[in-house]
Amino acid sequence: LSTETPRRFGALLVVAIALTGLSMRTAVTSVGAVLDELQAGLHMSGGVAGVVTTLPVICFAIIGSVTPRLAHRFGAHQLLVASLVAMTVGLLARAAAGQVWAFVLFSVLALSGGAVANVLLPTLVKRHFPDRIGRMTAIYTTALAVGTTAAAGLTVPFGSLGGGSGSGGDWRYGLGAWALFSAVAILPWLPTLRHDRPVAGAPRGLAATRLLRSPTAWALTIFFAFQSFQAYIAFGWFAKFMDAHGVASGTAGAMVAVLSAMTIPVSMVVPSVPPSRHRTVLVGLTLCYLVAYIGLAVAPVAGAWAWMVLVGIGSGQFPLALTMIGLRSREARTTAALSAFVQS
User: Percent of the chain scored above 90 by pLDDT?
Assistant: First the structure.
């Protein structure tokens, strides 16, 4: 723990960081699981559905870019709690929305929590656990992977528990259920708020634009951009790719679920690798992607399960990138700026 972190808060912070990680992507991947039902229920056009599925990227970029300044003004813990409250309200409100415009508006509110957490969690790990950045990053990226996989796989079963039928009740219960998880994530942060008062004369948060001339910032940005590129291709198109090659839709979905599930153990291991071996790990993860893409081109059906596993392992570049953000900055305010710069 850092000197500014009371020991009695140590375990509580670990729980808070893990629960926040669990909720960070539920607003994103839960929509894809019920997109057809959602379109039918709200009479949503294909074009608007495209906007809905693009909203996470837009929100993460725009809201993430202003997060360091907001954290300096209001305090990082208070801002994170406010964003989790907004996420909870947004998840519930969009599930009850009767109009397309309302669903889009409340989706932005729901996604704001993940956008803020994207930037703040590396910062808070640096601030409270400067000597355990890899281990703490592993905790929340593993929780994030679990939440991402669970939201994709459990939204439909959660909806069926609501007993909705005919009127679109299933997708509403399924989407709204995830508000419970973000609400629970708020609780362990509450005791930290009293120690989160902005201090007069404290150094102003470093603006992300100050990093425009930093080679390290640009290297991390390019790395983060390409690994994100791979992730959106995999989750957005692999199921359709396999379906186009004659694989049954259910099997294709199961393949993507395996890909997603592989990110869980990978997220547990990669951030804990010593920094001296990061280059070796990066080469290994990249080779997994390369072999998988060659396999998809040469034998898309015969080796499909193997290619999905390899892409899932290659996705370990994401927790590696987040770990590097914490390790390549000297203090928490620099971490906040670097996190905003890279992720936006």
Answer: 44
Closest C-alpha to 26, from 76, 78, 84: 84
Question: What does the pLDDT read at residue 330?
Answer: 76
Which tokens sit at 129? 């656990």
Record the tokens describing residue 189, joined without a space: 């942060």
Structure tokens at 105: 């508006």
> Quick one: three-class SS letters along 78-99?
HHHHHHHHHHHHHHHHHHHCCC
User: How large is the average pLDDT for residues 308-321?
Assistant: 94
Query: What CA–CA distance (Å, rounded) separates 235 from 224?
Result: 17
| Distance of alpha carbon 307 from alpha carbon 223, whole angstroms | 22
Query: Given a cut of 60, is residue 166 above it in pLDDT?
Result: no
pLDDT recorded at residue 167: 42
Question: From CA 139, how far away is CA 145, in angstroms rounded?
Answer: 10
Q: Which of 28-32, 256-260, 315-319 has the highest mean pLDDT?
A: 315-319
Q: What pLDDT band is residue 301 in, cutting at 50, 70 and 90? A: very high
CB neighbours of residue 298 within 10 Å = 10
CA 146 to CA 137: how far, in whole Å? 14
Per DSSP, helices labelled H in the chain are 10-23, 26-33, 35-42, 46-74, 76-96, 100-128, 133-161, 169-176, 179-186, 215-244, 249-269, 278-298, 304-314, 317-327, 332-343
Burial class (CB within 10 angstroms; exposed 0-12, middle 13-18, buried 19+) of 31: buried
CA nearest neighbour of 305 among 263, 254, 266, 236:
254
197, two tokens: 């008062």
Q: How far apart are CA 324 and CA 319, in angstroms?
A: 9
Q: Concatenate the DSSP letters of all residues of 149-167 into one string.
A: HHHHHHHHHHHHHTT--SS
pTM summary value: 0.82
